Amino acid sequence: MSSRTCAKPGCTAMASATLVYDYAAQAAWVDPLDAEPHPMHYDLCGEHADNLRVPQGWTYQDRRRPFPHALAS
Amino acid sequence: MARPAPAAVRTPWWGLGDVLLGFAFGLLGAQLAITLILTATDRSVDEVDDLPLSLVALSQLGLWVGLFGIPALVTRIKGRGLVADLGLRVRGRDLWRGGLVGALLQLVALPLLYLPLLELLDKSTSDLEGPARSMTDRADGPLGVALLVLIVGIGAPIVEEVFYRGLFQRALLKRGLPPAAAIGINAVVFGASHGQLLQLPALVLFGAVAGVLAHRSGRLGPAITAHVAFNMVTVIVLQAEL
């Protein structure tokens, strides 16, 4: 399991999603957690990714998979 | 003229004690392998989750010595071998029947089970996928993907089905437990042995279905192919970022 924690100040939960934004295009989106940390991306826990709000006028996309998958191994 | 006496059929005498032995050797083997790997590569215990896939494969071998080696050994010494005692056989029709069941479990049953459950627990699909992703993310390049398929798509399904649906489930049945109880207990232990709380319902569900497949067919083929399909759907989805 990843040892990265949520970037939200004060939150110590494990990160499970990554927030990416394009300031010029006024667009933000949440992806499944990046394989590697990226200096311009923000790792978020599930709760903070779910409750994310973007500034007025921005577009927002939740690109995490809607259906869960698991491994039996 | 007197008929020749029928050849004596050897009754297998392995049981739950051998299951415990398999667990113990598996845990010991895994621990020993991890310790050797960390020492040899000068890593600390905190870095276990960051081991490359090739070293994960080596650590799996330690676990598989117990989970596969013990059933192979005890059925040879105390019975008639893996094929006769545990039903380690795969028929052509197992490929599509088991494969279909495994894929449907992953693609249909899991969403039905988890969409309300994740809502209730205030968790996301990413939280559930964490352990799977930590494996698939380590597969770099074609060799990494081949190793990943070897571990979770071939090795784990064969080894785990031989141990859980083969030795363990049959040992419970030999003890006189009704099939439903044997399958249920086996599924819960199978799920719990993975040590992942959020994934527990999925693993128990898979264990129960694999238990039914193995019990009804009398062989491990359908459970193994279901296990392969269940894991490979996840590997493909996470690798291809579908």
Structure description:
The complex is a heterodimer of chains A (73) and B (242). A four-stranded mixed β-sheet of chain A has the order 3-1-2-4. Chain A is globular, with a radius of gyration of 13 Å. Chain A starts with 16 loop residues before the first strand and ends in an 11-residue tail after the last strand. Chain A has a domain at 17-62. With 73 residues, chain A is mainly β. Helices cover 7% and strands 26% of the residues of chain A. Chain A has one helix and four strands. In chain A, a hairpin with a 4-residue loop joins strand 1 (17-22) and strand 2. By secondary structure, chain B is mainly α. Chain B has one domain (16-240). In chain B, 76% of the residues lie in helices and 0% in strands. Chain B is built from nine helices and no strands. In chain B, helix 6 crosses helix 8 (200-217) and helix 6 runs antiparallel to helix 9 (221-240). The longest helix of chain B is centred in the middle third of the chain and has 34 residues, at 141-174. Chain B is globular, with a radius of gyration of 19 Å. The chains are: A mainly beta (73), B mainly alpha (242). Chain A binds chain B through residues 1-3, 14, 16-17, 32-33, 35, 46-47, 49-50, 64-73, and chain B through 46, 49-50, 106-107, 110-111, 114-115, 118, 122-135, 137, 151-152, 156-157, 160, 194, 199, 202-203, 206-207, 227, 230-231, 233-235, 237-238, 241-242.
